[in-house]
Amino acid sequence: MRAKISYAVTAAVLVVYFVLVGSRGVFLIQNGTPVTVAFGVAVLILPVIGVWFLWKNTQFVRKANRLAAELDAEGGLPADELRRTPSGRIDRDSADEVFARRKAETEAAPDDWRSWFRLAIAYHDARDTPRARKAMQRAIALHDGRTAEA
User: Fold this and answer.
1) CA angle, 16 then 7 then 83, to 5°
2) Helix axis angle, 34-74 relative to 129-143, nearest 10°?
3) Does the global pTM surpass 0.85?
């Protein structure tokens, strides 16, 4: 729940920022000189890119949460079996062991979205965020009946 609140607050702050930047871009365009119009258009591009990125990221999170809820209802979410250091951080060797099992599971069932979901969690636990995201995207695509690159 804390992550959802943090995400919502961050998204709201970004939206306010996009509105402020966008209003400055419109103001520059309204000045009407070639230089201010060029700057205004350039300034308006930033909020457009930001809104697109925020929308895509929100869609990704919603789809991943939907898969997590479905897997949880099936009883298929992986148990937290990772060892932790005294400070609470995940032990790297423990994460590597779990990752090896999840990778083997995914190689044995490459068309099962559930194995890709669990692999994404293992990548995340191993602090490999780009690969975790790609594995989750693959899980979402398989769940939705689409194909995606591994």
Assistant:
1) 155
2) 70
3) no
